[in-house]
Amino acid sequence: MRKDPPFDMKFCFATHLLSLIDQTRCFVMNDPKGLREANEKLYALRFPEQIPQTLVTSDMQRLKDFMEEHGGEMIIKPLDGSGGSGVFYLNTQDRNTNAILEAATDNGRRMIMGQRYLPEIRQGDKRIVVLDGAPLGAVLRVPLETETRGNIHVGGQCVRSEVTERDREICAALAPLMQADGLYFVGLDVIGNYLTEVNVTSPTGIQEINALNGVRLESQVIDFVEQRAEKIRKV
After folding, report:
1. Is 168 in the active site?
2. Is 95 a catalytic residue?
3. Where are the domains of the chain?
4. Which terminus of the chain has a lower count of CB atoms within 10 Å, N or C?
């Protein structure tokens, strides 16, 4: 089950219909219930040891206090965005800060996420493609000099990257819950040593990793699906 993000009501209704399928007879990946539960921004909050300091609120003053407490810099993002849409870098010296927060929160009526700014973003935002809790490969998306965001959609340059020991630690920490939720095919976003997002609707990165490393990751994904289907067939 894949859909270009963000999550919308059409997708939600599709997951309800897919939930009617008896998964003892037909394997569905990712699990429809897991897709409904795993908001791509909020799911990371289940792993506080793996993420940077984070605040979710609609209170503009709390967001400004949070920024002050964490070095005077912050990233804000909508809870339902994708591809870097609505992501802003804020600092205490920017005269636009109040106006940006007013627009982002709809004058205090909409919750957003604030995260401590990670300067390691200048080296890139790493996408780790995960299958059944284990990393398949990774790619760095390096932002343009004129950008804070590393998303490919806004011009991030794809650079070859290895899966580090820290990346494996993050995957291992997430694996039990992701597997319990039926989230088998997932894209993790990591900046420096911190998890920032868990992408479940349509995680990208396979094509870029294939091109940079001369591999075919999709074959491992299809093999996994066939193995799960075979187990069901034999029951």
Report:
1. no
2. no
3. 9-48+120-234, 54-117
4. C
39 is catalytic: no
pLDDT digits over 60-80, tens only? 999 999 999 999 999 999 999
CATH topology of domain 54-117: Dna Ligase; domain 1 (3.30.1490)
Looking at residue 146, its pLDDT comes to 87
- The one catalytic residue in 125, 126, 199, 208 is 199
> Does residue 127 carry a catalytic annotation?
yes
| Residue 3 known to be catalytic | no
Of the residues 30, 31, 41, 151, only one is catalytic, namely: 41
Please report, for residues 26, 54, 127, 159, 233, the alpha-carbon distance to residue 222 in angstroms, rounded to integers and kept in the order given.
15, 36, 20, 25, 16
Active site residue 77: yes
Tens of pLDDT, residues 143-188 = 999 898 888 878 889 999 999 999 999 999 999 999 999 999 999 9
